[in-house]
Amino acid sequence: MPLSVLTLVRDRTAYLHGLLAALAAAPDPPAEVVVAVCGGDDPRPGAPATPFPVRFLDVDSGERIAYSPARNACARAAGSERLLFLDADCVPLPGALAAFDRALAAEDALAIGEVLYLPPGVDVDPADVGALRRAGRPHPARPVPPAEGWERSDRYGLAWGLAVAVRKTTFLALGGFDEGYGGYAGEDTDFAEAARRAGVPLVVVGGAAVAHRHHDVFEPPVQQLTATVANAQRFRDKWGWWPMGGWLAGFAQLGLVEWTEDAERAVVLREPTPAEVEAARRTSARPFRT
């Protein structure tokens, strides 16, 4: 049975519909797609027809998407033993799902592939692999995948929730995503660290490329200051080191947080002003932070 694709959505209905259309047209479609609807617009109306079932789960969510509970709910509901967590703003290139599926069938591992970041204004045509590859920019911090097959890596911090695959039994045995993380940031790094300490290998899969569609971001994410700092602190208390160091350093430079790399606590000094939030918004492609 092919793998299950698990995603979540809140007010990005067009992206979700684009993902479903791409999967429907792919030569390697999934067994199913499980969608956690985390508030916002109802994505069911207008969803494209697919040759595989699409199941929608309504997940309680507050001001921010409850990433960990939503992803855990999708995993529990999935019918396949092999899972691919894939954000709705990502489109897998043809062959990506099959490559992830082969890797998980052969090896009990966390599996990651290549992520190609599309610049603003690029229309996503899942059938035009060459155009996607020409337009997409690989993140310089991510390993170059092998031409085919997969190879092991020790860079667990790159098992980002936007595109990571794992066996369902392994995911559940590790406890899933820690639901003590509120909102966005840190929950995927936490899961990867749990996998590392449990001896679950990390593999980088060749041919498992996804294109990431551009949208506005905040650098650093000052609009989620309190949640991001709280998640970083939870991780530091749990594992003994700081994740998201670049973001924390950015907060500190703005005078929002008292923090250094050797500190045991990160202290929020004040909330950002509306002007600081707007100044952090990035509406165009920017160089990657490595």
UniProtKB/TrEMBL annotation:
Q: Which domain of life is it from?
A: Bacteria
Q: Does the keyword Transport apply?
A: no
What keywords were assigned to this record?
A: Glycosyltransferase, Transferase
Galactosyltransferase C-terminal domain boundaries: 150-202
Domain (Glycosyltransferase 2-like) spans 4-115
Q: What class of enzyme is it?
A: transferase
- Pfam families xref list: Glyco_transf_7C (PF02709), Glycos_transf_2 (PF00535)
Gene3D superfamilies from the UniProt entry: Spore Coat Polysaccharide Biosynthesis Protein SpsA, Chain A
InterPro entries registered for this protein in UniProt: Galactosyl_T_C (IPR027791), Glyco_trans_2-like (IPR001173), Nucleotide-diphossugar_trans (IPR029044)
What terms describe the molecular function in GO for this protein?
glycosyltransferase activity
Q: Say if the entry is tagged with keyword Iron.
A: no
Q: What is its EC number?
A: 2.4.-.-
Per the record, the similarity remark reads: Belongs to the glycosyltransferase 2 family.
Name assigned to this protein: Glycosyltransferase
